[in-house]
Design a protein that fits this description.
six-stranded parallel sheet, 2 domains, eight-stranded mixed sheet, Rossmann fold, alpha/beta, globular, 394 residues
Length: 394
């Protein structure tokens, strides 16, 4: 374990901005949870908090003022990486904790003040990203380990607050851990509504479309996320096949590309898929798109749906946690049924035939997303930490 100070120039801490220590596996620009933590950490620094991060990796802009203590632990395989970090991360926390301590999920043992729940493993599905038998067995074993670790950490943390990223997750925590029900609060994830904004990256978006050989007149539906089985890439491809030939599906994320390309080929839409891989600039994917589609079976917040909304895209998503709190069916998008590829395809047909409908739904989606800004998320965490610090001092 090694200590790295990002900068020596730290603003004077106000009495209402107590020191905060974050424990997480990773913080950085790739991955929904990792990006949320980045925004939260940087936002708290701007409010005058002294911030310490204990993690495997922490990729923040130079001069952020965050004190980073690296936990030397492997990232995979999970069956080794998870208990390894739980032990070494717990020891690191005992050494370097300062002020209010927030753990990102069930990853360390011992006392913390806040547990942030981005995904509740007691109820969340274990969906392997590859179909091979050894990988599926490993995923099932990892799911058991996650549930056991989650129960252990929840019982031993003594946390004063269990912060959930959506009302749906909060309901799940109260159901699975009824003794903690009075400590559960919802602080929705936040969206960078400046980075994800209509016309914010027009030139780069045009260049991306050109590099993917998508003609100007073709419509693009964006699908963003890995774990393709859970997030519904198959029904998205089937919906493209039912959409009348007007849509190209741009897929950002990682998974078994050959399997899904074969499905698209069998449906006669293989040439309408574009594979973008994992990207740290997903704002460009949304900027070049004309709609967003996510037929997911389970989400806790679905940050990408909110980012698509902020970019003023019409939304087609299943009514999972987070999405239920964003989509007003028919006003800013459509709630869809995962198994109804024909119905999703008909929605895409309607959007293709009516540019004014796309514009109206997209504008309403942008308006809805503004209520879930990153600034609001940071402010609500700041207020929570101030209350906990005052309670501890009193």
């Amino acid at each position: 374990m090694r200590s790295d100070a990002a900068t020596q120039d730290e603003p004077q801490r106000a009495s209402s901005a107590p020191p905060v220590t974050f424990v997480a596996h990773d913080i950085g620009p790739v991955g929904g949870m990792e990006r949320q933590l980045s925004a939260l950490v940087l936002g708290l620094r701007a409010l005058g908090h002294e911030v310490t991060v204990i993690a495997r990796t922490c990729k923040l802009p130079p001069g952020s003022g965050v004190v980073f203590h690296r936990v030397r632990a492997p990232g995979r395989p999970f069956l080794l990486a998870y208990p390894w970090f739980m032990i070494t991360g717990s020891l690191a926390l005992r050494r370097w904790r300062r002020g209010v301590v927030q753990a990102t999920g069930a990853i360390v043992l011992g006392r913390v003040d806040v547990v942030a729940v981005h995904y509740l493993h007691q109820v969340g599905p274990a969906n392997p990203s590859r179909s091979t038998l050894p990988y599926r067995v490993q995923v099932k074993a990892a799911a058991v380990l996650k549930r056991v670790g989650e129960r252990l950490c929840m019982r031993t943390s003594g946390a004063a607050a269990i912060v959930c990223v959506s009302d749906g997750v909060a309901e799940e925590v109260r159901s699975c851990f009824p003794r903690l029900a009075d400590r559960v609060v919802t602080i929705h994830n936040g969206v960078d509504t400046d980075t994800f904004a209509p016309a914010a990256h027009a030139d780069q978006a045009r260049a991306l479309r050109a590099s993917l050989q998508i003609p100007e007149h073709e419509l693009v539906a964006a699908f963003v996320g890995s774990e393709w089985e859970r997030k519904g890439l198959e029904p998205a491809i089937r919906a493209i096949a039912c959409s009348g030939g007007a849509w190209t599906l741009a897929i950002a994320g990682s998974g078994e590309r050959e399997r899904y390309q074969a499905l698209a080929d069998s449906l006669g839409v293989g040439e309408r898929l574009r594979w973008l891989g994992l990207r740290s600039d997903v704002q460009l994917v949304f900027a070049m798109a004309d709609a967003f589609i996510l037929p997911s079976s389970y989400e806790t917040f679905s940050l990408v749906t909110f980012e698509a909304a902020a970019t003023a895209l019409p939304l087609l998503a299943t009514p999972v946690s987070g999405v239920r709190e964003l989509i007003d069916d028919g006003r800013n998008g459509y709630l869809i049924a995962r198994e109804d590829a024909q119905g999703i395809g008909e929605r895409l047909r309607g959007l293709a035939a009516d540019p004014e409908l796309r514009q109206r739904l997209g504008a309403a989606a942008r308006e809805s997303a503004l209520g879930f800004s990153a600034a609001r998320m940071v402010r609500e965490h700041h207020e929570l930490y101030a209350r906990l610090a005052e309670r501890a001092g009193g």
